[in-house]
Amino acid sequence: MRVTRSKRLLVFIFLLSSFWSYDAFAQISKTREELERQKAEIQAKLREFDAILRQTTATKKESIGSLNAVTRQFQAQTRLVNTLDREVKVLDTEIRETEAKINQLERDLKELKAEYSRMIYNTSKLNRNLSIVAFVFSSTNFNQLYMRLKYLKQYTDSRKQQAEQIEKVTAQLAEERVQLDARKADKVQILAEAQEERKKLEALRKEQQVIVNSLTKKERTIKSQITATKKQQQQLEAMIRAAIEEEIRLAEAAAAKANSTATKRPDSSMPMTPEVAALSSSFAGNRGRLPWPVETGFITQTYGDHPHPTLRGITVPSDGINIRTQPNSTVRTVFDGVVAKVASMPGYGETVLIKHGEYYTLYSKLSSTSVKTGQTVKSKDVIGKVATNSDGEAEIHFQTWKGLQKMDPASWISSR
């Protein structure tokens, strides 16, 4: 009976330790690894922000562009602080789970030692009353002799297993205590890091408010700038539409020829040869994976209509995205294609429109271009350099189109 009870105890402790180790901590470790990955990505983005914005410190002015940049910084800094807070919560959970596991192991160890002591005591009692040899050979028949030998073997094995399990639980207990100390140290470090990042967040909030207050006083000037910008956007859109319409007209004229291999699919904006259709399909298949038109940078203006950051009731439209980058950065095409148009546009500077089958990408706010209309380009080929405006901001404007339909460029380029 005593041997059976010891075995049940050993099995129970083994199963409990295995379950706790795998189930309780696997998910927590995965969550923390994910948070560490997110933290590293945000910190890399913030370093990129700092590197780019440091270039314009000397010429920095309180403008919508600078407000957008600080706002993006503030958003990224907020995400970092929130990530650190979540990491502290995960560590708190890990600490509680580890402490609970330590308490359970201590109870298990106490029970194992108590059971082992009872086994030693019972053996010593047996030895006092009767020797092992006498106990075995005092059997009245062969069957009793066999059962006594079997019992002694089981008892010896059980004692050995009990001793091994005590060693194992003791080692596991020591390991858990080391892990607990490490997690507590990690928590102290992350709390200190979070405190520092909150200071940076507050500094960005104050900087953001200073710019907002300054721009609010310039309402008339800003409204005039918005009117001029909208006119420039309309001129840019008219140029794009005219260029795409011309490409469609040429494609339809070529398809009308007797020996043409071009066909028009129901979902297509124009007839395409097999080669052009393959290029178009390849471009579409790379949605979300296209390289950025500049090597480093961050988006300061997203696609679509947005409320003005300082003027109530004013909506600012955007047909593409603005990417802030290093001054004099090279601009590159995001996919294979053919240059459909090179132009100089009011408010947008040098502009390049590239055709990728029935898809188009637009690159504007360039200081110079290095391609010409009709030229074939490959992905990441340099097509020009980004311009720096009067506020010291180096920013490229990027658009994507399918035929005459505008699309959100952020959904096409890879995430950062």
From TrEMBL:
Limits of the M23ase beta-sheet core domain: 318-409
Keywords, ordered alphabetically: Coiled coil, Signal
CDD domains from the UniProt entry: M23_peptidase
Pfam family, one: Peptidase_M23
Gene3D superfamilies, per the entry: 6.10.250.3150, Glucose Permease (Domain IIA)
One MF annotation (Gene Ontology) recorded for this entry: metalloendopeptidase activity
Signal sequence coordinates: 1-26
Coiled-coil blocks: 25-55, 81-122, 152-261
Protein name: Peptidase M23
